[in-house]
Write a structure and sequence with these properties.
heterodimer, A: alpha+beta, Immunoglobulin-like, 4-stranded antiparallel β-sheet, 2 helices, B: Cytochrome Bc1 Complex, Chain C, 2 domains, 4-stranded parallel β-sheet, elongated
């Protein structure tokens, strides 16, 4: 049974209104926050070249002569490097404890580690421990940082080939949590 | 009921039909948006393309200039650039809605198995492409939302054992963001993905004969007006500019494209990849999961095939090729069926000029027919229906299809029904035969809602043959007033009954049908 034209038009208008409403609503609602209110973010980024498992050796002239001409390099370095063992403590509580394998088939590249945590805004004592030599126990670097984290701030703890650095983010406009 | 059973009583199909039926009444069946979901998706991409080209004229592809240029586009020329930006965004969201509805609908109707595996399978990479398209689009605004998307995407990609230097290191601080990397993303969004999408669509439609690329104008106009109204009412705007020294909070996230990121926050990179790949593999495998159905393919009888090519032209799936004659008969071509492409709809039987119940051959053969529902079967069923339609009132034979209203339930005194795999299987000569030899007063041909034939073109070919616009034509001697074509959703038995009642009233006002010869 065919509907009268006004009814048809009303139905079409209702259908398109529903379509536009669904489109418009879920294009921006519900609002999303990746962190709970009053929290900030601590990022750890490590790109660190650990020590080789075997030290480089100097070849003798005799050993060099035994090699093809294009391979006569005086210093020979085995490629494999030690795992980087990283521990991060926040107010003496362990936040991270992991061993990172250097990249590359022969484990000859850097050890990369990326991590992030949401923490309530506030002051924290950070302790970073790093073992980057072939030893089995102990740490080669232990660094302490004072972290003052604001809500919504993103702070970076950057572990490169030099000394680790704590890079503060931008403190957003004051929020009730900071008052 | 035909040999393969009736599908119109399937609970899920009935639910779907019940949901879609009001739209057929508001828009008219041939303009029902649910019958054009794929075409609507393509149409939305046209809107995205046109609005995107406009935005590109004013957009600064640099890291430092992207956000500012979009602010200027949005606010300084809100009436043009602002509307274009909103249209660009909302058409993208609308495309996700129609695309997912299109996929769900094809799944519910079982149109992803057998021959149709190819279109289904090639649709899965399209899903990925479309979502990546949208995600890279949000990246280009380089506001807080873009920052969240960029960092989360980098984390997600870094989980894969692909990059030795983690991508997320590009987004540690504002100083580490790589201008070149940003330009690369812009290039992917503006050039790479559009090319990929066009190629993907080409593959998706490669095996679809006479695909519907454009929706009806009513739908084009309606959807454009709806999106324009939405763009004016709730314009798309940016978040504050990206700043990697803060965590973006309170984001108005586009859940159509970006829902995976909150899922990532709530789970892990590995779990999200497992979910995404798991769903994709499952979707790809669906056509081959049980219950497997392999309807027998149509067969060609060279003794009755004249190589006229009508079947090859009508086959909705391109399953019929015309090849040089292999027998001694004096015809150039013969039909050859590719069983891998045949969906066993019987439309080829309806298009074959030798599919005529008037022929005296026994058993009656057609040039091309279904092995489980031959022309001989069809003739016997037509005659049985004639025999079952006695009565003092106008006698009607109702020919239906297995995917629309179950016609057996519509039978009543004086109305005898038979169901075919597709209404398009009924040759025009069958209508002539029922009226002329069967002596019935009227013939009703019914099938899937207009423009929504389960086998894509069955309703269209029937209408064209009856209108004498397509071969084989209904003979001009057939009185049109004694024929009713009536298309319905499977749940619309009431509408079909009403149409038959009205038709019967008209028939009763006509003189009694002339009967050439009772079978």
């Amino acid at each position: 049974m065919k509907l009268p034209r006004p009814m048809q038009l009303a139905g079409q208008a209702a259908a398109w209104t529903l379509f536009a409403t669904v489109t418009g609503v879920f294009a921006q609602w519900p609002v999303y926050s990746p962190l709970a209110a009053g929290h900030g973010e601590l990022k750890l980024s490590m790109a660190h070249l650990t020590e080789r498992l075997e030290p480089c050796v100097q070849l003798t002239q005799e050993q060099l002569r035994a090699l093809p001409p294009n391979m006569r390099v005086a210093e020979q370095c085995p490629r494999a490097r030690a795992h980087a063992v990283v521990q991060l403590l926040v107010d003496d509580a362990p936040l991270l404890d992991t061993a990172v394998r250097p990249v590359g088939l022969a484990r000859g590249g850097r050890a990369y580690l990326q991590a992030h945590w949401g923490l309530p805004a506030g002051d924290y004592a950070l302790e970073l421990r790093l073992r980057d030599t072939p030893r089995d126990e102990g740490f080669d670097q232990v660094q302490h940082f004072q972290l003052s984290l604001a809500a919504g701030e993103s702070v970076l703890l950057n572990v490169g080939d030099g000394d680790p650095r704590l890079i503060p983010g931008r403190r957003p406009a004051a929020t009730p949590q900071e008052d | 009921m035909s040999a393969r059973g009736h599908h119109g009583s399937n609970a899920m199909l009935r639910l779907l039909a019940r949901f879609e039926r009001p739209f057929s009444r508001w828009f008219a069946a041939e303009c029902n948006p649910f019958h054009h979901l794929g075409a609507l998706t393509i149409y939305f991409f046209w809107i995205i393309l046109v609005s995107g080209i406009y935005l590109f004229l004013f957009y600064d592809t640099s890291l430092s200039g992207a956000w500012l240029s979009l602010e200027r586009i949005t606010h300084e020329q809100w009436y043009a650039g602002g509307v274009m930006r909103s249209l660009h965004r909302y058409a993208s969201d609308a495309a996700i809605i129609t695309m997912l509805l299109h996929m769900s609908r094809e799944f519910l109707r079982g149109r992803y198995r057998g021959v149709r595996w190819y279109s289904w399978f090639t649709g899965v990479p399209l899903l990925w492409l479309v979502f990546i398209f949208g995600i890279t689009g949000y990246w280009m605004v380089w506001d807080e939302l873009a920052q969240y998307v960029a960092v989360s995407t980098a984390r997600l990609l870094d989980w894969l054992p692909v990059f030795s230097d983690p991508m997320v290191r590009n987004f540690l601080t504002n100083e580490t963001v790589n201008e070149r990397f940003f330009t690369l993303m812009a290039f992917i969004h503006l050039v790479g993905l559009p090319i990929g999408l066009v190629l993907g669509l080409w593959f998706h439609l490669l095996r679809v004969r006479l695909p519907r690329i454009n929706p009806p104008r009513t739908l084009m106009a309606g959807s454009l007006i709806a999106l324009l109204a939405l763009s004016l009412a709730v314009p798309a705007v940016s978040h504050p500019p990206a700043d990697l020294g803060i965590v973006p909070m309170e984001m108005r996230i586009d859940w159509f494209y970006l829902a995976i990121y909150p899922m990532l926050d709530a789970s892990s990179e590995g779990a999200l990849w497992a979910g995404l790949w798991g769903i994709s593999i499952l979707l790809c495998a669906l056509p081959w999961l049980p219950p497997l159905k392999h309807p027998p393919a149509a067969i060609v009888h060279l003794s009755d095939c004249t190589g006229c090519e009508f079947c090859a032209e009508d086959c909705p799936y391109g399953a019929i090729d015309m090849v040089p004659r292999t027998d001694e008969r004096n015809f150039a071509l013969e039909a050859r069926v590719d069983p891998a492409l045949c969906v066993s709809c019987g439309i080829c039987t309806g298009s074959c000029p030798s599919s005529s119940p008037f022929r005296k051959q026994a058993p009656l053969l057609s040039g091309i027919e279904l092995p489980y529902f031959t022309m001989d079967d069809l003739k016997r069923r037509l005659e049985a229906a004639v025999a079952r339609s006695p009565g003092p009132r106008a006698r009607i034979v109702l020919v239906g299809c297995d995917y629309s209203v179950p016609v057996a339930a519509v039978e009543e005194p004086g109305v005898a029904a038979l169901s075919l795999p597709c209404a398009g299987m009924l040759p025009p000569a069958g209508i002539d035969y029922l009226l002329r030899v069967g002596g019935v007063d009227g013939v009703v041909v019914t099938g899937c809602d207009a423009g929504d034939c389960h086998f894509r073109h069955g309703d269209r070919w029937v209408m064209d043959r009856v209108a004498r616009d397509r071969m084989p034509k209904l003979r001009s001697r057939v009185p049109r007033e004694r024929l009713l074509l009536s298309w319905h959703k499977p749940v619309d038995a009431h509408g079909l009954k009403a149409a038959i009642a009205s038709f019967r009233q008209r028939l009763e006002a006509l003189p009694t049908a002339a009967r050439e010869q009772r079978p």
